[in-house]
Amino acid sequence: MAIITISRQLGSGGDEAAKLLAKETGFTLVDKARIETLAGEQGLSGPEVDQMAEDAGRAWATNRVVHVDLVQELILNLASEEDLIILGHGGQFIFRGFPGSLHVRIIANRPIRIRRVVEAFQVDEAEASRLLERSDADRGAYIRYHYGEDVEEPSHYDLVIRTDAISPAEAAHLIIQASEVMELKVKGKDLQGWLEGTWGREEARRLTGIPAFAHPSEEEFARVLDFYRIRWVYEPRAFALAWDKEGRITEAFTPDFYLPDLDLYIELTTLKQDLVTEKNRKIRRLKELYPEVKLKVFYGRDFRSLLTKYGSSEVKKKEDPK
Fold first, then answer.
1. For 163, phi and psi rounded to 5 degrees?
2. CA separation (Å) from 155 to 103, 128, 145?
3. Could you tell me where in the chain the CATH 3.40.960 domains are found?
4. Which of 12, 268, 38 is nearest to 151 (CA)?
């Protein structure tokens, strides 16, 4: 996945540039509103969500673990599915060292920032100056507290844009040019591999919401689906196949994957042919009981051919039992 992070000063036009950039590239914009929405979906209350804002003074300092861990988890989970533009929230440090990332800092001279804040917030220059000081202090403290870094240090960024004489649209255009030169989408294909190397395999999987697959073949198939950006759900539901006299389920079948955009269930079987009889019986029973359900079965030979066709790096010549 491609990642663009934008750190900006209040009054620099960075927010506007990020919105225009998202519109031009089709990348998902992760700003304060999106973080709040994602956090709310995780069951956080209003006050807890408010503490996650980088401009919330030092409210986030009351619970560093809740804040930093959750924000990183929300962003990394989203990054495993979509190209992102991350506005603030320490994105440049979350993805520091990721080959598919471009880190941008947008700034402007103080008099210009004051003028823009006066126009945007309908305040006088004295109040605008106070707003700038508070914003700079809050954002600087946020980065210092959570990452131990100076947000203004130029070496954290691939591109620093001063917007004294250029518009947000022109700034967005410069970022697009830089992203093309850096070939973000090409270099960012193996986000999961980078995460596992940086965070460790188990932690990377937790952060990105990747399930614990029961068999390596399932993980390989998921990689093929991800490469072609086909949405999938792992072991989405169990279909009851038999019941006892009291109506309790005695037998069920759970397909490996569900592809919601195709309304299609997928079952993988890399078992040797003489061992698939029981699974085939269950599949026939499922089709009898649920004729409306679309199910595609990939057997060992078909599965290996599929992985070979799509460039799997772990295709095995021998069949592994599943």
1. -100, 25
2. 10, 29, 19
3. 212-309
4. 12
What CATH number should be reported for the domain whose range is 3-187? 3.40.50.300
Distance, CA of 287 to chain centre: 36
Q: What residues does CATH 3.40.50.300 cover in the chain?
A: 3-187
Of 62 and 26, the structure prediction assigns the larger pLDDT to 26
pLDDT digits (tens, 9 = 90+) for 178-235: 999 999 989 988 888 888 787 676 666 666 666 667 777 788 888 788 777 788 888 8
Evaluate whether 303 touches 217 at the Cβ level (below 8 Å): yes
Q: Are 289 and 241 in contact (CB under 8 A)?
A: yes
CATH class of segment(s) 212-309: alpha beta
| Cβ–Cβ < 8 Å for 233, 261 | no
